[in-house]
Design a protein that fits this description.
Elements (H helix, E strand, L loop, with lengths): L1 H20 L5 H6 L6 H12 L2 H14 L5 H22 L7 H8 L2 H33 L6 H50 L2 H10 L11 H17 L4 H8 L4 H18 L1 H13 L1 H11 L3 H9 L2 H38 L5 H25 L4 H6 L3 H6 L1 H9 L5 H21 L8 H19 L6 H6 L1
Length: 476
């Protein structure tokens, strides 16, 4: 019965997405929902940017293992990312009326920088989307009691999300985000209420977490421990800013003001609500300490779903898995769409500039299918956990795409030579330190990449010819 409910819910969601898809008339509808979204829908779609597999399974599992210090990247870094991105995109990029971040790089620096940053952004999405697909496979495996393998679940989940996203694009994503956010919030709050009855209330759970140090946020140790802590925080907070899904969700708003407040409210709701699955997962360690301790040692991602299936009634299980699938479908649909639109707009279109809007819309859909196949292959073969799959996704954009974006907005002297040096120097140094030292180096490799990227931008921009003032682009 649980599997049947989940399948019915998926079919209803797909049906809504396909209906909305009939409203898509051009590439702007497909890529940024025609810039017609009101504040409530923008809030919902910004919230859904992060509230997916990682927030429910990854963050909660990491909190059970490591406490608040372990989740500095998400929700602390990711929430700040949405606020910073909202300010940047609504104030400086919204009025450019562009479809992708790659368009900004082209306008500011030229075609070469557009292509390089687009490739970096696309690569970063492999880990993020793969985490969502992996979680869908995990859920279908659990609710079917092993009848559907995790591999088969990944294939089914990819096909479902791909169906309505390919046809409806950002318009379908945004409407479903709004509906699914209501399901997610109400469903998980109801589960938290049931679980609190099993633990004797909320206070005993908080007190136990406090007693073992799980509520200590700042790390204990020397300066190198702090540098690692800050590097992890910055990877998510800054590395996620030059991301197409964040950009398209914010700039799909019908005004710059709505884009700003939608991102701020969406980020705040996300930050507060991420603690709900943390509370539910940690409660398992009080309800049955020995059993869930063994589970956590084997695979902490299973703590939350196994708690629900073993200690809640069927009705509650249906609500939980419906809410989880809602969150993951919302998150994965936009993160499949974003790199596909970016590749079509900033790489393919450069070779076929006279392509009609109708043909270009079909190109976007073909790119979406191809990227989905690549993500499915990566998810099926990666051994990383959901949390670490996401955490590692934004190292390349932190090292290679963040500096050209921010310096391009705020520094008049930034030019194409500086941007090229920033990309090569940032990504190159990050890769070298990652390969040679990995996590054993005193400074996180991605932080080395960021510092090198900024240094190269300043030095080579000053060496190169004077850039045309950025204000010319921002005022056009």
């Amino acid at each position: 019965m649980l599997l049947n409910f989940v399948l019915i819910y998926i079919l209803v969601s797909v049906g809504i997405g396909l209906y909305v898809a009939t409203k898509v008339k051009n590439t702007r509808d497909f890529a940024i929902a025609g810039r017609h979204l009101p504040l409530p829908v923008v809030i919902a779609t910004v919230f859904a940017t992060w509230f997916g597999a990682e927030a429910i399974f990854g963050v909660s599992a990491t909190f059970v293992d490591e406490g608040l210090t372990g989740v500095v990247a998400d929700p602390f870094g990711s929430s700040l990312c949405l606020i910073i991105a909202g300010i940047l995109f609504s104030k400086y990029l919204y009025k450019l009326n562009i479809i992708t971040l790659g368009d900004f790089y082209r306008k500011r620096y030229g075609r070469s920088i557009e292509v390089l940053t687009t490739i970096a952004i696309m690569v970063s999405y492999l880990g993020w989307v793969a985490a969502q697909i992996k979680a869908l496979g995990l859920i279908l495996n659990i609710v079917s009691e092993g009848t559907i393998s995790e591999q088969a679940g990944m294939v089914v989940g990819t096909f479902v999300v791909l169906t309505y996203t390919t046809l409806g694009g950002m318009l379908s994503v945004a409407i479903l985000d709004f509906i699914q956010m209501l399901v997610v919030i109400s469903g998980l709050l109801f589960i938290a209420y049931l679980v609190s009855d099993l633990t004797g209330g909320v206070a005993p759970v908080i007190q136990d977490a406090k007693n073992i140090g799980h509520l200590d946020f700042f790390p204990k140790g020397n300066i190198w421990v702090w540098i690692t802590f800050i590097g992890t925080w910055m990877t998510m907070m800054l590395g996620s800013i030059p991301q197409q899904d964040v950009f398209q969700r914010i700039t799909s708003a019908k005004s710059a003001k709505i884009a700003l407040w939608g991102s701020i409210f969406g980020a705040l709701i996300y930050f507060c609500f991420t603690f709900v699955p943390m509370f539910i997962a940690y409660s398992a360690t009080l309800i049955n300490p020995e059993y869930f301790k063994d589970i956590a040692e084997q695979n902490s991602q299973l703590v939350l779903p196994l708690l629900i299936t073993k200690y809640t009634p069927l009705f509650a299980q249906a609500i939980f898995f419906g809410a989880v699938i809602s969150a993951i479908m919302s998150c994965s649909s936009a993160t499949l769409l974003a790199p596909s639109v970016t590749f079509a707009e900033n790489i393919v279109r450069g070779y076929y500039p006279n392509m009609s809007d109708k043909h270009f819309l079909n190109v976007m859909r073909v790119c979406l299918v191809c990227f989905s196949i690549g993500v499915l292959f990566y998810a099926s073969n990666s051994e990383l956990s959901i949390f670490h799959m996401v955490e590692s996704a934004y190292k390349i954009t932190l090292a290679g795409a963040f500096t050209p974006l921010v310096f391009g907005i705020f520094w008049n002297k930034a030019n194409d030579l500086g941007a090229l040096a920033a990309i090569i120097g940032g990504i190159g140094s990050w890769v070298i330190f990652e390969v040679l030292f990995g996590e054993n180096f005193l400074v996180p490799p991605q932080l080395v990449g960021l510092i090198m990227s900024m240094t190269c931008m300043v030095v080579f921009s000053l060496i190169g010819s004077k850039a045309e003032p950025v204000k010319q682009y921002l005022n056009n």
